[in-house]
Structure prediction request, 119 residues.
Amino acid sequence: MFHRTRDAIEAHLTIVITALAVAHNIQERTGRAIANVTKQLRPLRSATIAINGTIEAFPPPVPAPQQKILETSASPNRGTKRNVLSQVRRRIPAGGALGTGANDLAGARSSESQQPRLS
Prediction:
């Protein structure tokens, strides 16, 4: 994937950071690693069939262990220290997903600390 513009790069980083935040949230809610959750839920697939103009949806039978994962991942998690949105905000610099370089780092310092030191 070739990203040639700043907007494309920022969009890509936004998607990546959101995916990481969602995965972290699922891990916190279920108490399982994201790979384990994916492995457990991957076989569950629904079917939609159209016969003579009638469309029917057939949900998969969900075993008890997978049902517990779905229930815990869907319910709000009130026992965590931080919510996902605060984690995402903390990871993105103040100027957006991408900074302009050294100026972003220097912006956090006071004007006195930016003056050159005399040795």
In short: Residues 6-99 form one domain.
